[in-house]
Amino acid sequence: MIAVETYASADQAATALHGDAVFLGGGTLIMRAVNYGDLKTERIVRSTDPAMKSISTSGERISIGAAATMSDVMLNPQLAFLAPVARSIGGPAVRNMATVGGNLFASHPYGDFAVALLALDGRVSVAGSGEEDLGAFLARRSSFSGVVTEVSIARPATGDFRYRKVSRIKPKGVSVMSLAAWLPRSGGRLSGARVAFGAMGNTPVRANGVERALEGANLDVSGIAEALRAVRTDLQPPDDPIASSWYRSEVAPVHLRRLLLDEEVS
Ligand SMILES: Cc1cc2nc3c(=O)[nH]c(=O)nc-3n(C[C@H](O)[C@H](O)[C@H](O)COP(=O)(O)OP(=O)(O)OC[C@H]3O[C@@H](n4cnc5c(N)ncnc54)[C@H](O)[C@@H]3O)c2cc1C
């Protein structure tokens, strides 16, 4: 028997997360685990805190409540650049439930939304604690216990954000890989580009060698050549039933080129 406890604030929910209690977001992964008898807990904790649903812009950054769903993202004009990312996750029923916060914990090959947040300089807020770099948070997420309240991201200039999800089944298969890039430019050249991959490691990861190779480069065929070479050695993709590690490494430069040059794929 599992008891479900509902708290009005994120702080109260965080305080209640002791022992083997599990926090419930939209439940697309947790309820599947419950139904299969895979969740070993006697307590599920949830929060109805309205702040966890809010989406707001402040200067050059946007804050997205952890309880905002993929459908909320798709409907919000401030997040139009993220609508294709949200739309790439599951089918409509999943998108109505799946939350931004839950996506940070979705294990390989899920976590497509977190890939976009990572490219956009995501910072995670945790109830009762401060803000933390998303990359550092993802690295320690397996031992994390608490409530994520929101993720803040940079607001990209028009055309500076790109995302692709590569899957074998259209439109809603799981990822062979997902890729996201934030490509700010200064004087026409890339400056501080961030490139992230999903399904290419245990968590979404940044491609640091690719980012170094893009610094000061032009966003054209010759400008990105070094970055395409770097991606082969940057990541250690896992084998899974979707694709082998070898295959993922071989096709990564192809998909990175398409992403960076914004090439149409039929
Ligand atoms: C049919 C199907 C298709 C899917 N397709 C995709 C896909 O294409 N891409 C993809 O990325 N994912 C996919 N998913 C996985 C999942 O739906 C998403 O990753 C979703 O964003 C998870 O969020 P959730 O709110 O449902 O998480 P939940 O199931 O509620 O929770 C998942 C984990 O996150 C933790 N958690 C949730 N919210 C918080 C919070 N605010 N603070 C702390 N911990 C929290 C929970 O404790 C739990 O450990 C799919 C799932 C299904 C069932």
Discrete helix count: 11
Which molecules are bound besides the chains? flavin-adenine dinucleotide
What's the CATH class of the largest domain, please? Alpha Beta
Q: Give the N-to-C terminal Cα separation.
A: 50 Å
Shape: globular
**What's the total count of β strands?**
14
Question: Which features does this protein show?
Answer:
3 domains; about 270 residues; Enolase-like, domain 1; alpha+beta; 14 strands; 5-stranded antiparallel beta sheet; binds flavin-adenine dinucleotide; single chain; Uridine Diphospho-n-acetylenolpyruvylglucosamine Reductase, domain 3
Structural overview:
By secondary structure, the protein is an alpha+beta fold. The protein folds into 3 domains: 3-47; 50-154, Uridine Diphospho-n-acetylenolpyruvylglucosamine Reductase, domain 3, CATH 3.30.465.10; 161-260, Enolase-like, domain 1 (2-Layer Sandwich), CATH 3.30.390. The chain has helices spanning 10-16, 30-35, 70-75, 83-87, 92-97, 100-103, 112-119, 134-139, 208-214, 225-234, 245-260, and strands at residues 3-7, 22-23, 43-47, 55-58, 61-65, 123-126, 131-133, 148-154, 161-167, 175-182, 185-186, 189-190, 194-198, 205-206. The strands form 4 sheets. Strands 4-5-8-6-7 form a 5-stranded antiparallel β-sheet. A 4-stranded antiparallel β-sheet has the order 9-10-13-14, sandwiched between helices. Helix 10 (225-234) packs antiparallel against helix 11 (245-260). The termini are far apart. The mean pLDDT is 96. Bound molecules: flavin-adenine dinucleotide (FAD). Flavin-adenine dinucleotide binds at residues 22-30, 32, 66, 89-90, 94, 97-99, 101-103, 105-106, 110-113, 147-148, 174.
